[in-house]
Amino acid sequence: MVAVLLIKRSNFASSSFNFYIMDQIYTVEDFYRAKLNWMPENLKNELGHFNVFRLSDFVHNSTKCGSYVRKEYFKVSLINGRHKYEYADKTIQIENNALIFGNPNIPYHWEPLDDALSGYVCIFTESFFHQFGAAKFNEYPVFQPGGHPIYFLSDTQKQRITELFNRMFDEIGSEYTYKYDVIRNLVFELIHEAMKMEPATTLFTSSNAFARISSLFMELLERQFPISSPMQRVKFRSPTDFAGQLSVHVNSLNRALKETTGKTTSQLISQRILQEARSLLKYTDWNISEISWCLGFEELPHFINFFKKNVQVTPKSYRS
């Protein structure tokens, strides 16, 4: 059996807990570089990566909510103590114990409200669970956009979750040949323990929610451009696509953008698609069918009609 790289916990050198980097993926390497100021050997492994930490090792102060970032890894946190958690356009204040699931595609941020926090964090890549389990890992409700990533814990539930994290530490330090399978099972136990609980639903919208969600939308939109290859394709094309990725209702997204930009979600998407279409027609020799496909249109006539409606000429005439 090929060993998955597992690294025993170490003290973190820096103080921030969540990271926001514009227009790029925040990788596992970024996590270790920012937190440890050193890079483990052979960090990348075809069977994925997993590690577990005690919260007291690296939490010292809070960070301000930043811009959209797609992380390379999932995260599950058990946090004991008062703190505020923000994800997408929602905010929840936690007074005691909470189990929190971090999806790589959903922007999130948390802020300690006192100095007495404790708990655990584990991070792992999706490839760590490749061909392990009945469903794709990110199809579990705790990780889905629009789902419930936060669960309040009773003292009994906290004890059970704490035991699971402690068993992860034990397995990482053991010499057992199949310890990686045991660790995977422990992560699945965390997931299933959560799905048996009632999720935290007492959410409120923070005062700057419109500005934050508008910023997240614009950054997610811009991350799809420029189109630099005929093999590259726009993935998010509709308001529903963006709302799903940002874990907000499509009406909430539209209200936020209308309030902050004066334009609807559809208008902003269309403007950016049109801008890229003009550029590709002018500066590349790709045929119009290729450009249409790259911009997310399923049928060439749909692209031609879209372009003509907005520019008053066909793509072919514009190029000429």
TrEMBL record:
State if Transcription regulation is listed as a keyword.
yes
Determine the domain of life of the protein's source.
Answer: Bacteria
The entry's keywords: DNA-binding, Transcription, Transcription regulation
In terms of InterPro entries, this protein maps to: Homeodomain-like_sf (IPR009057), HTH-like (IPR037923), HTH_AraC (IPR018060)
Domain HTH araC/xylS-type: residue ranges: 241-320
- Check the record and name the PROSITE patterns matching this protein: HTH_ARAC_FAMILY_2
Q: Which Pfam family is one of this chain's hits? A: HTH_18
GO MF terms held by the record: DNA-binding transcription factor activity; sequence-specific DNA binding
**Signal sequence bounds:** none
- What's the protein here called? Transcriptional regulator, AraC family
Supply the source organism for this entry.
Answer: Chitinophaga pinensis (strain ATCC 43595 / DSM 2588 / LMG 13176 / NBRC 15968 / NCIMB 11800 / UQM 2034)
